[in-house]
Amino acid sequence: xxxxxxxxxxxxxxxxxxxxxxxxxxxxxxxxxxxxxxxxxxxxxxxxxxxxxxxxxxxxxxxxxxxxxxxxxxxxxxxxxxxxxxxxxxxxxxxxxxxxxxxxxxxxxxxxxxxxxxxxxxxx
Length: 124
What we know:
The chain is of the alpha+beta class.
């Protein structure tokens, strides 16, 4: 395996950013979905999407996602966490996760191979 001259796999000295909402230094809000690892270089990558464009998933080296950039004569974080967003996302995930497992088999494109649940309603 050849070594990669640029962007070696980081030693992960600092902690990864928490999933949640972040504001880009040029404007726009993004949701950090996860931190992934490149299969060849083992470089850590930020996986995120724009709040305005839910269709497109973006990846960027984690080092770039968390770095400071020069903007209008000041050093700013490229992506700054929006206060409280990771706690809200965590609470929603704990609540919605089990519900999606139960309700996911009804309708939508995620059809289960199981037989649908049949219910009987008694009208009085």
